[in-house]
């Protein structure tokens, strides 16, 4: 058995490309990145782009690049269910951390979908999608008769 197509498509291509877009935006469009990381009518003003702000955004871009490369290169190199589960669990923890990082905008950011700009769609909406895909995979949805409990899990080949 192989990893189902929908999971391979999302985790090997769609999500890594999205992370690369985030890396590009943070590294090469830092003013826009900061400006767009808000909801309309919010009281938050993006800070001026100081050397420290720029360094933080470059570090963020580097982490997005790492995220994209790890997800694509590790998962594309194996059909091991154990490896897929472990990596996707780690990314699920990161999803929740990413959502928590949006909390300073207020609780509205998590449900005012009509007010989301492209950046908030990526930082909240797309994270919802990724976390949902990871939870589905970890729950065994679409994996057929592959054992999903116990300490030993078969390698999918």
TrEMBL record:
TM annotation in the entry: 7-27, 56-75, 87-107, 119-143
InterPro entries according to UniProt: DUF7704 (IPR056121)
Keyword field: Membrane, Transmembrane, Transmembrane helix
Signal peptide feature range: none
Keyword Transmembrane on entry: yes
Superkingdom, natural source: Eukaryota
Location of the DUF7704 domain: 2-141
Annotated PANTHER family: CHROMOSOME 1, WHOLE GENOME SHOTGUN SEQUENCE, EXPERA DOMAIN-CONTAINING PROTEIN
Full protein name: DUF7704 domain-containing protein
């Amino acid at each position: 058995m192989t990893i189902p197509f929908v999971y391979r498509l999302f985790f090997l291509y769609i999500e890594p490309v999205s992370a690369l877009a985030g890396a590009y935006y943070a590294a090469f469009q830092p003013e826009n990145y900061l400006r767009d990381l808000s909801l309309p009518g919010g009281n938050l003003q993006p800070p001026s782009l100081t050397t420290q702000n720029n360094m933080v955004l470059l570090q963020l871009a580097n982490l997005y690049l790492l995220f994209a490369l790890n997800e694509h290169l590790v998962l594309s190199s194996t059909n091991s269910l154990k490896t897929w589960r472990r990596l996707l669990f780690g990314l699920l923890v990161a999803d929740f951390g990413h959502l928590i990082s949006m909390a300073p905008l207020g609780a509205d950011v998590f449900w005012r979908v009509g007010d989301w700009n492209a950046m908030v769609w990526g930082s909240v909406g797309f994270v919802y999608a990724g976390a949902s895909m990871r939870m589905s995979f970890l729950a065994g949805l679409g994996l057929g008769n592959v054992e999903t409990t116990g300490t030993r899990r078969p390698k999918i080949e």
